[in-house]
Each structure stands twice: as C-alpha cells, then as structure tokens.
Design a protein that fits this description.
78% helix, 9 helices
Length: 278
Amino acid sequence: MGQGHVVTLYVIAAFAVIVPVVFGPLLAYGPGRRLARSTTARRVRAATAGLVSAFGRPGAALTVLLAWSAAIVAVFWPLGELAHSLEHAVDWPVLSWVATRRSPGFEDVNWFYTALGDRYPLKWVTVAGAVIFAVLWRRRFWIPLLAIPAQFVLEQYVQAVISGMVDRGHPPTGLGTYPSGGIARIVMVFGTLALFVALTWRLDKKVHVALGTFVLLLATYEGYSRIYVQKHWLTDVISGLMFGPALFAGFALAVCVLAGPREGAAKPRDARILEPAT
C-alpha cells in the first residue's frame, strides 16, 4: 500500500471538516432564510396556532411530535430498502477500499472521536444539559427538564422502528445499523442544547448560525469516523446525515410550540406560536 493511498483518507477527513463549515452558513442564509419566509412556513405557523387553540401547548407539541415521527418513519423506511439494495454495489466496495488505507495513528484518533456518538457519553451530556437549563429557566424549569431528555428517547425509538422495518444487518466489522444512530444522536443532543441556548438568550443571528454549523460539523465528522473505523456501511452514514436533521427539525418545532412566546415580547400575527420563551 502506497503512502498516497493513506493520504487520500486524510484529504477526505479534511473535507469532512471543511464542507460543513462552509455550507452551514450558506444553507442558513440561503435556503434556510427563504424557507423561514415562505408560504409553507406561514401555513405551518397557522396550523400550529390551530393546534394550540384546540389542545393547549403541551397537547399541540405532542401532536406535532407524533405526526412528524410518523412521517419520518414513512420516508426513511423506503430509503432504507434502497440503501439495502445498494449494499453489494456501494457498501462492500467502500468497506474494502477503506480497509486497505487505514493507518494505526489516525485510526486511534477516529476511534476516540467516534465514541462521541455512543449512547453512554451522550446520556450524561443530556442529563447535564437538562439540569443546567432547568435552573436557568426558573419557574418554567419543567420545559427543559422534560424536553431535553425527550430528544434522547425520541431518537432511540424512532431509529429502532426504522431499523427493525428495514432489517438490513450490519457490516462484518461493526454493529452499526440503518440509519446511523451515532450521527442522529449527536444532531439531536447538541442540536437541542443549541436550541435551548437560542431560546434562553437573545443572541445575534450569526451566533445561531455558528451554533448550527458547529452541530453540523460534529455530525459530519462523526459520519466520517464511523466509516473509517468500519462500524457502519456508507449508506448508513449518508442516511444518518439526513435522518438526524430531519428528526430534529420536527422536535425543534414541537419544543417551540411548547415553550410559546418569550415573556414581554410582541406577538405579531401567528408567528407568536414559534417565539422562544424564558
């Protein structure tokens, strides 16, 4: 094996860092901004306003969460079947290609990093985040104390449902399933903490974008590390990079519905439903 073959994986690792750093802000200020001002966004705000009127904020938030989770299952089930059909054409060649280009030192780095997406360390991050924000939210302590742990449970069970429906197995070198739970957990845990930072303090939009970009960076490199240490098929990782943000989007909407408007803030039209609270 030539040194150039090893360097190729270093270059891909660099791209796993550079791409989210560059495209995170571009997505936020481009498609993200247009989506927030779109007709679809206005309809979503109107629909959530109707749910709040009918069921109250807790009931509306639960309705949003359950409906979104069902939609996620409906979308990622056929995508999982597609990924399974590509196993011999895509996943096995990539697995073999990576296996011949790993280096011991860099492998240690990736084994260390990929543990970030495991359940055990993220349980403690979740608990710490819930306690800290419960203290910060004072009399509304129950919202972060309920919502932050809920994201962990939501990801685990929605992923388990999809994985069970697809039942595609795992690489012979690891136990990773479809879609990548390590990536999804990072998005859900750190994305939820970033969301509560945004809901707790009035921060500049640039800070919000930086937080989102940081979460995207963590998730993207987690995907790279899972492929490098061969815990997942490539298609598991690609699916995880879609599944995690998709699930988080619905969860974030549910949290905003539950939290309601920030105290003392103006409440223009139906947009007040999604204003943050402290």
